[in-house]
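ERR on first pass: missing label on line 2. Operator R.T. fixed the label and resubmitted. Corrected input:
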Amino acid sequence: MADNRHNRDEAYTLQTPDDHRRYYDQWAQTYEDDFIEAEGYAYSARIALIARRLRPGFKARIADIGCGTGVVGRELRMQGFRGPIDGLDISEGMLKKAGEAGIYDQLHCTDLTDPGSFPETRYQFLISTGAFTMGHLGPDTLEKVFGLASRGAFALIGINAVFFEKDGFGAAFKEWEAAGRITPPVWFDTAIYYDLEPIKTHSRIARIAAFTIT
Ligand SMILES: C[S@@+](CC[C@H](N)C(=O)[O-])C[C@H]1O[C@@H](n2cnc3c(N)ncnc32)[C@H](O)[C@@H]1O
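pass 2 clean. output:
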């Protein structure tokens, strides 16, 4: 049943990791009805298609960064990814939902802003939708997330296009590239929803960066 107490616009106003933990714990049960289904969320399916196009048949361990209820894991399976996928998220409630489909190998309750809470595993592939968006995680956190990658890992990171501009992701990517931290990204500008009308606002677009962490 839809839960009118929780919605995307309110989630965009959250500020601290504790705000996120609390908000998503409460939203977890109805997130897929209220948001994924109701809004026509296409982001997870589209990032999984890009993953298949760039890394078909990839079998090593994948980390789904800010996995929520696990929509990316499901879509990766649909696109033929058979290896282990771990989900990382700050909300136990979301992780519990993600666990229900039996798709994830391990689920880690992790505050991505705090490397002290990271699992010890190092991943060969990082993927993310919906975590780098308004009110959520900025470039400083993305840089910390690189610490989860093994050397030469592949990354497919979606960032809301409005947030990308506002929060300085463009400059951060240039710095990481100049410092040799990452290879030059290939960008896939992607509609987040199955919009029936032409997209008029950038907040409905994600910039998905594909790159290697060196
Ligand atoms: C909009 S949801 C996206 C979930 C899923 N990837 C999707 O596309 O549906 C954002 C997720 O980021 C998680 N999140 C927010 N802040 C976080 C943090 N500091 N550390 C880990 N996860 C966080 C939330 O708990 C939530 O599950």
